[in-house]
Amino acid sequence: MKILVTGTAGFIGSHLAKYLIERGDEVVGLDNINDYYDVNVKYGRLQRTGIIDSLDSGKNIPYNQLITSNKYTNYKFIKLGLEDKENLDKLFKEEKFDRVCHLAAQAGVRYSLTNPDAYINSNIVGFTNILEACRHNEVEHLAYASSSSVYGLNETMPFSTSDNVDHPISLYAASKKSNELMAHTYSHLYNIPTTGLRFFTVYGPWGRPDMALFLFTKAILEDRAIDVFNNGEMRRDFTYIDDIVEGVVRVIDNPPKGNKNWSGENPDPGSSKAPYKIYNIGNSSPVKLMDFITALEEKIGKKAKKNFLPLQAGDVPATYANVDDLVRDLDYKPNTSIKEGISNFVDWYREFFKI
């Protein structure tokens, strides 16, 4: 298959692209390589897949030009913004993708409190451009990143795709819920199979520098205090990156069909008569934040200094994924343990930053 993966300088996208390339798919990666966080981490991910030779050469990647990997003959990359509709349409028309996995987005709950425009431009305008490009270029299946953040004020655990998610508490979450609504519209109107992926706190090697594990590891190694929100009374359904990628690949390979049992009198939010589906991808085993920190301390061999703080605006105290649909439809359930995942991350961190 020929697959477009957006966000391939990003955490999940870089891992997914490598997986698909190595199984033999023809892959085109896309990313605007913005400076939301340390671009050297993004350059490192691109170097890993042979798009650049060194971190320094990442600064010289031209805009809107396909680059062939020096490591994989079946991988090309293009630096392009989602808001650039003209060049995005041209890319779709020329490359003729069979399937699209759209992971590029402005990420982060807290950043959305101070930079709302970035979320509208990337997550709303950009997603519209992806939908239109899929519509006009006979794409067989669009899989796209949603988020566990959409559950917002919902306190029913575990979170199910059949739950109502009309009460988001951050613009980031609202933008992801909007993506799900927009995708359903295109599935209904144009019969485009679309699948939304609600990721639950993804972590692992090459992870994002704005996420807790990265921040905690950096602070502990530098002998600085870590910020522990909600006074440590947090639970997260941490999901290891390899588990996420396996789930995403199974989704890409299995475009949804309409749910024959779907009823407008009792509508299931996670499916439709149209070829539309939503999946949770989580470990389905919430971990207490303090236990997570303890596992990190044990791996590093050093106690963390802790700065206990109240719950931040936009955050939820707990996440917990119901993955019954994932198990039933795709015969898959994430299962990597926290200790294994944290150990792999710290090993990567020490190697990348030469610590």
How would you describe the overall organization of this protein?
The chain has 355 residues and is α/β, with parallel strands linked by helices. The protein has 10 helices and 14 strands. It starts with a strand and ends with a helix.
Question: In a nutshell, what does this entry contain?
Answer:
Helix 3 (85-95) packs parallel to helix 4.
Largest sheet: 8 strands, mixed
**Helix/strand/pairing category:** alpha/beta
Distance between the termini: 40 Å
Name the helicity range.
Answer: 25-40%
SSE order, as H and E? EHEHEEHEHEHEEHEEEHEEHEHH
Strand order of the largest sheet: 3-4-2-1-5-6-7-12
- Rg value: 20 Å
Multimeric status of the protein = single chain
What is the total tally of β strands?
A: 14
The best one-word shape is globular
As a percent range, the share of strand residues is 15-25%
Are there runs of 5+ residues with pLDDT below 50, and where? none
Q: What count of helical segments does DSSP give?
A: 10
Q: Mean of residue pLDDT?
A: 94
Keywords:
about 350 residues, alpha/beta, 8-stranded mixed β-sheet, two-stranded parallel sheet, 10 helices, about 35% helix, about 15% strand, globular
Write the layout of secondary structure elements.
Layout: E1 2-6, H1 11-23, E2 26-31, H2 39-48, E3 67-68, E4 75-79, H3 85-95, E5 99-102, H4 116-136, E6 141-147, H5 171-190, E7 194-199, E8 202-203, H6 212-221, E9 225-228, E10 235-236, E11 239-240, H7 241-252, E12 276-281, E13 287-288, H8 289-300, E14 305-308, H9 324-330, H10 338-352
Parallel strand pairs: 1-2, 1-5, 2-4, 5-6, 6-7, 7-12, 8-11, 9-14
Antiparallel strand pairs: 3-4, 10-13
Helix pairs in contact: 1-7, 3-4, 4-5, 6-8, 8-10
